[in-house]
């Protein structure tokens, strides 16, 4: 009983060992309830999950990283879309303005 | 030290592997669209700001077709039908009419006097002015006054085609509808004062207005208040004959109307005392003129058109104002910069040339010259030869071959020069090559020279002399363009001479030299190491290093006698690439050192004094400078051409004076300056576009890598020829 647990033979060797007699049982309490199996909670709209910052890798500052460079391309995309949108709206407004004036003139020519 | 995909090398380290995308067309389309919108806005602004003088033009002489009824006093003309009818104001009835408004200052004052005396009047408004001040018109209508059309831009209607006349009326009607939700049947032609002055052309325009449903209103009494003859004269002019009714003409805009307001305050009570009744034109004649009784409900289409006109005029006015403000700021800054350049550069040059000037004891310490090279086979031999043959006592030339594929290193080795070492490093870019050179340099003084640059024999010796001053950490040499045979080479030559001889002297005086040029610059090795070496995070590693040196407290000076000749880009495409990298790199370096603004000590000094100065004059001012050319074009098209041309020539003269000073200080012949006017027409605009391109790349976070320029070897060939000669 006192020999270390790791030194006990396992597998087929163990079958040849004489079976040791049980001298007692450890007292345990009765099971009074069962825990529900773990189910990850569903994401709730409007509530951000708390990140586990304790085990996150620290991002080291890259001193050789090119200045201004946005590797994700998100900034450029946003800027481009905003520019295109503004240009499109301006062109549409301009076209409407000219059209309204041209119609007045066309009425005269007619 | 490179990026490999499979067994193929695809890029250097530091350069991003970016998927090629075809965004060029979209970007250029956006640029053209923005330019198109801007031109339209400016055109609208110019249309709505047509200059006009008050209605003081007399009619023509030919009046054969003007009906007698009008000339006999029928001041209200209804030509809506086939039969023209003329009407006069009833006896002892006065209709006060005000032209050329609304004006945000004078119209409310006039309205206030009218309200004081309980009188309503008729305001013939200019559409463009209504677009600018719709609230004033709204208030007039709300207080019981009447508005009439005085056209949109106040042109001489007789000189316009029919469609333009129609547009003038409809546009004004539309903006009145938008401002006050009423329409008006009344119209008064600009420059048509009394009926007695009517000529055939004006009468034709009056008939046409009638056919479009408008009732033309002339005047019986012209107060001539536009001439500001004095209150008494205005009252006298406005007073009708005894017992007669009259349409009285006054003005509520077009200049100082103090006399008009004062005259009105006297005229109304005086006439009331004489038993006169004041009313609007419609108030007096609606019973006899059917058109004045017509339904005046505004249509929704008119409101929409009016809104578009009002807001486009407001937007155009705002844009023109912003451009004018920018122009003023740019002009003031340019003037300030020119004055500073002249003052500081001349003082700097005199100090350096004085007999007592000395950096200290002669510097004869050995020097390591680092030459980073990547595929520079065409030019490297001449560069290395010129460096190795320098007159400085001990020069070690260290060529760092950055994994060239054209045999650059072998070309140097073939020279078999005793004081030249070639080191091959894995490809990592110029900054990495320079850092390797620093690590391998044998001496404490290092000079960095580009592989396409040929130096004068005494250039290295002269360049290191400022190190006699222990506070000096870096020295900028005087780099000149070697290939000046083409126009583009001459333009760059002018730019280099001005930039080096004036700008660098100014920057040195103010202790904020932004760049020790990579083509020729000397450094203390310890200072460079303390500043963190050369960074790969910007594309202008020389600017970045210079700023870092400032922040660590070192002085950076300019040595004009250390001369080198470099090969400048020989095509516009190459020039664009080079300047794109320079301006983008400068922006990167400034942004990288932005925290210096909040720091203490030398870093804070540079951050608060030098950095804003450099940012203002190297980025902000050049970015705003296109407004000069924009207004030059705008002025030639819409404003006084002579004045515009004069202003442009003055600007050219200032540039010329600056260039002459720079060339004189540098002992350069003035002949290449003939290319200066052309430089203002092409080169400068290309530089604007490059800067805008760089700023757009910086804002969008786009990737930009080092772009290798193609060498022609012209400077190297000149050096070789001079050597053999």
From TrEMBL, chain A:
Protein known as: Uncharacterized protein
Lineage, opening ranks: Bacteria, Bacillati, Actinomycetota, Actinomycetes, Micromonosporales
Region of interest (Disordered), ranges: 1-50
Transmembrane stretches, start-end: 84-107
UniProt organism field: Phytohabitans suffuscus
Keywords of the record: Membrane, Transmembrane, Transmembrane helix
UniProtKB/TrEMBL annotation, chain B:
NodB homology domain residues: 92-279
Annotated protein name in UniProt: Bi-functional transferase/deacetylase
Bilayer-spanning residue ranges: 28-48, 613-639, 645-665, 686-704
Family membership noted in the UniProt record: Belongs to the glycosyltransferase 2 family.
GO MF assignments: glycosyltransferase activity; hydrolase activity, acting on carbon-nitrogen (but not peptide) bonds
Record-level GO BP terms: carbohydrate metabolic process
Keywords, alphabetical: Glycosyltransferase, Membrane, Transferase, Transmembrane, Transmembrane helix
Organism: Phytohabitans suffuscus
Pfam families in the cross-refs: Glyco_tranf_2_3 (PF13641), Polysacc_deac_1 (PF01522)
InterPro entries: Glyco_hydro/deAcase_b/a-brl (IPR011330), NODB_dom (IPR002509), Nucleotide-diphossugar_trans (IPR029044)
């Amino acid at each position: 009983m006192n020999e270390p647990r790791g030194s006990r033979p396992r597998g087929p060797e163990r079958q040849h060992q004489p079976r040791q007699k049980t001298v007692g049982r450890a007292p345990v309490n009765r099971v009074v309830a069962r825990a529900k199996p773990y189910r990850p909670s569903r994401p709730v709209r409007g509530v951000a999950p708390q990140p586990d910052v304790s085990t996150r890798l620290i991002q080291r500052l890259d001193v050789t990283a090119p200045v201004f460079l946005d590797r994700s391309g998100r900034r450029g995309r946003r800027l481009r879309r905003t520019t295109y949108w503004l240009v499109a709206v301006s062109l549409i407004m301009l076209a409407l303005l000219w059209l309204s004036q041209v119609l007045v003139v066309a009425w005269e020519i007619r | 030290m490179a990026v490999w995909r499979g067994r193929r090398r695809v890029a250097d380290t530091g350069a991003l592997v970016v998927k090629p995308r075809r965004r060029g067309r979209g970007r250029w389309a956006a640029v053209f669209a923005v330019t198109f919108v801007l031109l339209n806005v400016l055109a609208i602004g110019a249309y709505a700001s047509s200059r006009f003088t008050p209605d003081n033009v007399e009619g023509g002489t030919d009046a054969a077709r003007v009906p007698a009824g009008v000339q006999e006093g029928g001041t209200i003309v209804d030509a809506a039908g086939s039969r023209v009818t003329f009407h006069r104001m009833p006896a002892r009835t006065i209709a006060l009419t005000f032209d050329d408004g609304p004006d945000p200052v004078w119209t409310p004052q006039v309205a206030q006097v009218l309200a004081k005396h309980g009188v309503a009047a008729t305001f013939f408004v200019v559409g463009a002015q209504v677009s600018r001040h719709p609230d004033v018109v709204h208030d007039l209508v709300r207080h019981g006054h009447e508005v009439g059309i005085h056209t949109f831009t106040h042109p001489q209607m007789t000189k316009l085609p029919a469609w333009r006349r129609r547009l003038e009326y409809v546009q004004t009607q539309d903006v009145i509808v938008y401002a006050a939700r009423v329409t008006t049947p009344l119209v008064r032609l600009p420059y048509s004062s009394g009926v007695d002055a009517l000529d055939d052309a004006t009468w034709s325009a009056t008939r046409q207005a009638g056919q479009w449903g408008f009732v033309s209103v002339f005047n019986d009494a012209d107060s001539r208040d536009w001439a500001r003859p004095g209150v008494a004269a205005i009252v006298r002019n406005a007073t009708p004959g005894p017992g007669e009714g009259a349409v009285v003409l006054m003005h509520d805009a077009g200049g100082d109307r103090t006399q008009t307001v004062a005259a009105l305050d006297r005229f109304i009570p005086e006439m009331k005392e004489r038993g006169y009744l004041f009313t609007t034109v419609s108030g007096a004649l609606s019973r006899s003129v059917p058109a004045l009784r017509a339904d005046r409900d505004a249509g929704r289409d008119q409101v929409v058109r009016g809104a578009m006109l009002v807001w486009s005029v407001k937007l155009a006015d705002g844009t023109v104002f912003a451009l004018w403000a920018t122009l003023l700021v740019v002009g003031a800054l340019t003037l300030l910069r020119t004055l500073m350049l002249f003052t500081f550069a001349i003082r700097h040059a005199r100090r350096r040339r004085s007999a007592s000037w000395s950096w200290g004891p002669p510097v004869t310490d050995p020097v390591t010259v680092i030459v980073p090279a990547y595929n520079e086979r065409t030019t490297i031999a001449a560069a290395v030869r010129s460096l190795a043959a320098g007159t400085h006592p001990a020069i070690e030339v260290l060529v760092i071959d950055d994994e060239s594929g054209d045999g650059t290193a072998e070309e140097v080795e073939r020279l078999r020069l005793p004081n030249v070492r070639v080191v091959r490093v894995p490809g990592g870019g110029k900054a990495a090559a320079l850092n390797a050179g620093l690590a391998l340099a044998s001496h404490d003084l290092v000079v960095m020279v580009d592989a396409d640059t040929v130096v004068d024999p005494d250039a290295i010796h002269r360049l290191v002399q400022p190190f006699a001053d222990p506070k000096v950490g870096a020295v900028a040499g005087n780099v000149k363009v070697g290939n000046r045979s083409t126009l583009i080479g001459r333009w760059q030559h002018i730019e280099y001479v001005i930039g080096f001889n004036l700008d660098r002297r100014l920057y040195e005086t103010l202790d904020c030299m932004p760049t020790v040029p990579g083509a020729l610059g000397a450094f203390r090795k310890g200072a460079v190491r303390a500043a963190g070496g050369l960074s790969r995070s910007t594309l202008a590693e020389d600017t970045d290093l210079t700023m870092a040196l400032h922040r660590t407290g070192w002085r950076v000076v300019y040595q004009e006698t250390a001369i080198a000749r470099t090969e400048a880009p020989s095509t516009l495409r190459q020039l664009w690439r080079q300047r794109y990298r320079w301006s983008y790199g400068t922006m990167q370096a400034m942004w990288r050192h932005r925290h210096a603004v909040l720091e203490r000590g030398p870093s804070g000094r540079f951050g608060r004094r030098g950095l804003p100065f450099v940012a203002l004059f190297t980025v902000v001012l050049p970015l705003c400078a296109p407004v000069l050319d924009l207004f030059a074009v705008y002025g030639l098209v819409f404003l006084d051409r002579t004045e515009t041309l004069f202003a442009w020539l003055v600007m050219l003269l200032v540039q010329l004076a600056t260039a002459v000073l720079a060339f004189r200080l540098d002992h350069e012949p003035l002949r290449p300056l003939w290319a200066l006017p052309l430089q203002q027409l092409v080169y400068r605009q290309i530089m604007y576009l490059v800067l805008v391109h760089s700023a757009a790349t910086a804002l969008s976070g786009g990737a930009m890598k080092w772009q290798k320029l193609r060498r022609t070897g012209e400077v190297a060939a000149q050096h070789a020829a001079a050597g053999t000669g």
